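Task 17 of the worksheet. Students: predict the tertiary structure of the chain below and write it out as structure tokens. Keep your answer in the requested format; marks are given for formatting as well as content.
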Amino acid sequence: MSNKRSRKDEQLDQFRVDDSGKHMTTNMGVKVSEDEFSLKAGERGPTLMEDFYFREKMTHFDHERIPERIVHARGFSAHGEFQLYESLEKYTKADFLNDTSKTTPTFVRFSTVAGSKGSAETVRDARGFATKFYTEEGNYDLVGNNIPVFFIQDAIKFPDLVHAVKPEPHNAMPQAASAHDTFWDFVGQNQESAHMVMWTMSDRAIPRSLRMMEGFGVHTFRLVNKEGKAHFVKFHWKPVLGTHSLVWDEAQKINGKDPDFHRGDLYNSIEDGDYPEYELGIQVIPEEDEFKFDFDILDPTKLWPEEDVPVQIVGKMTLNRNVDNVFAENEQVAYHPGNVVPGIDFTNDPLLQGRLHSYTDTQLIRLGGPNFHELPINRPVCPFFNNQRDGYGRQTINKGQVSYHKNSLAKNTPAPASEEDGGYAHYQERVEGHKIRARSNSFKDHFSQATLFWNSMSDHEKEHLINAFSFELGKVESEAVREEAVKMFANVSLELAQGFAKNIGVTPPESGGSDVKKSSPALSQANTVHKPSTRKVGVILANGFNGKDVTQALKELSSEGIMTEIISDKQGMVQGDDGSEFKVDHTFLTTDSVLYDALYAVGGSNEEEAFKKHASHFLNEAFSHYKPLGATHNAVQWLSDNKLADHSGVVAGDDVKGFTEDFVQAVAAHRHWDRQLI
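Model answer:
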């Protein structure tokens, strides 16, 4: 872990407690003489009410759990820092986006959306990507997802969406899944969801790692500079390792093998010093160009194609420290899109406008009252002063007799700050019109960008989309709901609708489709960065392996940043033919091929038939998930025996240097999709 400390770390030090070597006390500091038995009237008598320690201990336990988030309940967090590459003063007066010499502490929470706190992590779902910047001007929260659009256009529909996707109320099933009737009924009756559904049915909804997924602010915000000039902006996080995903069969198996797969991957990468990195990008549109596009830039179901509005990379965030306590930090952190600093402002996106109310309202019930901002993880690093007082969980001890504005007794302090002194001033946008419940006509095109997404996919990504629709709608019992989905997505792509209709028992449509021919290469993960670093490779060894060659191969893989774990049939040490030894990290029983990015099989002179049987199962499953396979020495024959040799991404041979060079390239590729044709 990094030894570099931020101002936020130093602030949190006063709240960190190390109990080792200490006497036990009550919460008021009274030393406790007994923690095994409650105070009773005689050894077999009733417990006495005066046992204040028992009551304190039990009452605290009774209230250890706070209400979980209705959405984004299953999440995990990490501390980090943000470094600006170039000043953005021409766009914004926000200090942390102006001064390249400053390092801004951050805290990021990743999450699934639909599942409960105890659900698995590799489910098909959007992922939350919420970032808290602890700036010198106050906390700024960029509360986004790994998908740049959303299901609905107006926040008033959010309760309906969540009710539809959550477990159905009559039987509380299914957990953390959208493959059921009420969700797809909602989709069919709310066709503005078409674009987002394309993303959630794509590989984007089953990321390989939280370190390998993009983040988006979703909404259109404003940047305002010192001269008061505004630009529309969308925020992006671009993972340095590229954007990569699981395959569906693999994702489902991981849910059973390791339901903590994503948090474990994030936690261990930070502990190992392989700090996740994300570059911050912005798309900027001048105010005068607001209406120059074939979509409404304020519509949260629309993205700005990167080929039309390029993403400018302006900084990098590095996650370099794990949380010390999951409850105190991950569970008590409170994000809010309304937490902004001077230079960042809002637009009239109706989904964003509703979120500005909802997040505060949510924290009030979850965190027990209005003082959640005083919890250590939520405190800004800059001082804060106002006339707010009292309430549950108040930690600030305010001195003096005055708690109102205006006043003379305290010389009218705390006093508002002028804009020149850093006071927040809302952008003065002209607004006029009748009070009305309606939707702008510019929001009513629900299919063009869904088609843009389809057009942008590679062949294997299109096949995955058809399979995802087939799986999800195959779980829907209502034939009418299935038919409505086919009819709806025929407006996106006739090929898509016909592809999944035949798999779910619905007559494929004969007409439909879209006139949209445009594509956006940036939307396809086939065009992402490919690196071997931090990839996890399972190395299958039996006693008697070629010690010299394996030692050299592992050394060369490590030099490329590839992580390796030794897999064998028994715990302990596995020994090579030259006396070299490796500690066995896992046996065939304690791990699985789905938990690795690639396999490197070697075997050994002392391998038994049972060993080869287990190894063959690992290799065949990894091959079916299009993963790289490497084999040297005894294991070369295993590939032939299992008809796995001579395929893309399968590397075999005993020339260590040539083998490792080719295997590293295969690992960097992530998947070898041409094997889908086999």
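Marker's comment: The domain at 532-677 is CATH 3.40.50.880 (Rossmann fold). The CA atoms of residues 39 and 45 lie 9 Å apart.
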